């Protein structure tokens, strides 16, 4: 399973800074090199933020290959429009990208994001009390987190496709073209979804590159498009731009709801985990919808962005964004809704973990061994063994993927015991010899 993170082994120093930040304990440092357990990685990007040696990078496609395929159709995360000094207006970005022989499909974004918000609003209205709050599926890292750590919350995930995927499907339906599409994103989880999508068997995008890489190309190749394209003042932004920051999706969903709904917005990995823990305890009654993002401030805080997330938020806040829906487009939107283009093709299912084996009897025996090994460890969770915690270390030992000597404290104890034994042995004499001077 793809995880969106590329390991550069030649740059890894084995410093173990990354393993402590992983929320699912999916990282190890073995023989001085980092490893990722892809089956439990949520591609949140926290390890990339902690790595100071650039040993962890986004697992994007080769930039030279993308350039060789121009004209290339692009679908960009809304946060891409906030990466530059000019206002986040799609017309300006389209001008810059067209000059570089790229073809953005911004024209489909409005319908894709509108129908997504409409579908979510109707899902909320038709849901039963015990299934609320529903949870947004827009952030793929949140979806993976729930699949791995919060299985009880899976029924709460709204079965609505990412509007980025929907925009590609709309573009292909309208244009009758089957050209390859490149997703531009700052998120390792979204890049991973191109290779291992959730809720569908194959992604509508064929390639994926980082926002920062394309932003650099725009800055080098096209200059400031606001000096070439006339834009009306004050600047107006489409509704989908607001999805780049926390709260934008909720505002869009509320604008389509036929009744007042209560939404809760949360960002930052620790905050998201705490919220889900409270939700499992039944503390969020009365809330209809949760918009959760693992990155601070939303997608503008993604690790693969080029611009400061704080400056990006200011740009969006200074835009005039109208969430009052234009009734003139209602008929077209209803037809898109009826076509179910917004719906996930497959149900989201838990990612089951069998850490000690699938055979129940053998797993119970290993569990006893794990408790015994864990009791023998110092319980300091220092990370010097290359595992994020002593319990993970004990689990690896039971599975035959480590030994007690991997623990520096146990190793020091063993060295001390061996030293004492060697010292005691060195004092012993051969039986046939007696000390000098004795009869």
TrEMBL record:
InterPro entries: 4Fe-4S_dom (IPR007202), 4Fe4S_Fe-S-bd (IPR017896), 4Fe4S_Fe_S_CS (IPR017900), 4Fe4S_Ferredoxin_RnfB (IPR050395), Fe_hydrogenase (IPR009016), Fe_hydrogenase_lsu_C (IPR004108). PROSITE patterns: 4FE4S, 4FE4S_FER_1, 4FE4S_FER_2. Pfam families: Fe_hyd_lg_C (PF02906), Fer4_10 (PF13237), FeS (PF04060). PANTHER family: ION-TRANSLOCATING OXIDOREDUCTASE COMPLEX SUBUNIT B. Keywords: 4Fe-4S, Iron, Iron-sulfur, Metal-binding. This is Iron only hydrogenase large subunit, C-terminal domain. Residues 3-32, 33-61 form the 4Fe-4S ferredoxin-type domain. It comes from the Bacteria. Gene3D superfamilies: 3.30.70.20, Electron transport complex subunit B, putative Fe-S cluster, Fe-only Hydrogenase (Larger Subunit), Chain L, domain 3. Residues 362-424 form the 4Fe-4S domain.
């Amino acid at each position: 399973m793809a995880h969106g993170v590329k390991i550069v082994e030649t740059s890894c120093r084995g410093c173990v800074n990354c393993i402590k930040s992983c929320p699912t304990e999916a990282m190890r440092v073995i023989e001085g090199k980092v490893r990722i357990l892809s089956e439990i990685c949520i591609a949140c990007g926290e390890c990339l933020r902690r790595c100071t040696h650039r040993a962890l990078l986004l697992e994007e496609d080769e930039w030279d290959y993308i350039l060789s395929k121009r004209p290339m159709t692009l679908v960009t995360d809304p946060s891409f429009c906030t990466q530059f000094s000019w206002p986040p207006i799609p017309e300006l970005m389209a001008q810059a990208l067209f000059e570089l022989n790229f073809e953005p499909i911004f024209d489909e974004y409005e319908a894709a994001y509108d129908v997504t918000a409409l579908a979510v609003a109707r899902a909320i209205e038709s849901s039963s009390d015990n299934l609320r709050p529903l949870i947004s599926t827009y952030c793929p890292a949140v979806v993976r987190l729930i699949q791995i750590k919060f299985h009880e919350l899976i029924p709460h995930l709204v079965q609505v496709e990412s509007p980025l995927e929907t925009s590609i499907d709309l573009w292909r339906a309208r244009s009758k073209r089957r050209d390859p599409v490149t997703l531009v994103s700052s998120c390792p989880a979204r890049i991973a979804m191109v290779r291992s999508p959730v809720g569908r068997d194959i992604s509508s995008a064929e390639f994926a590159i980082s926002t920062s890489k394309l932003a650099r190309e725009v800055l080098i190749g096209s200059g400031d498009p606001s000096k070439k394209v006339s834009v009306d003042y004050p600047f107006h932004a489409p509704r989908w731009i607001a999805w780049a920051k926390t709260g934008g999706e909720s505002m869009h969903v509320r604008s389509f709801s036929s009744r007042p709904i209560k939404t809760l917005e949360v960002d930052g990995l620790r905050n998201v985990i705490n919220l889900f823990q409270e939700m499992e305890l039944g503390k969020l009654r009365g809330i209809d919808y949760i918009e959760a993002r693992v990155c601070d401030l939303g997608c503008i805080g993604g690790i693969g962005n080029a611009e400061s997330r704080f400056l990006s938020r200011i740009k969006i806040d200074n835009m005039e964004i109208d969430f009052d829906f234009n009734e003139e487009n209602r008929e077209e939107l209803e037809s898109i809704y009826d076509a179910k283009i917004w719906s996930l093709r497959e149900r989201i299912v838990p990612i089951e973990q069998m850490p000690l084996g699938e055979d129940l009897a053998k797993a119970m025996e290993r569990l006893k061994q794990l408790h015994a090994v864990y009791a023998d460890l110092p319980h300091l969770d220092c990370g010097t063994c290359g595992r994020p915690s002593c319990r993970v270390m004990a689990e690896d030992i039971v599975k035959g993927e480590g030994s007690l000597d991997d623990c520096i404290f146990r190793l020091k104890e063993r060295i001390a015991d061996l030293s004492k034994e060697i010292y005691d042995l060195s004092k012993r004499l051969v039986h046939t010899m007696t000390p000098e001077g004795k009869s």
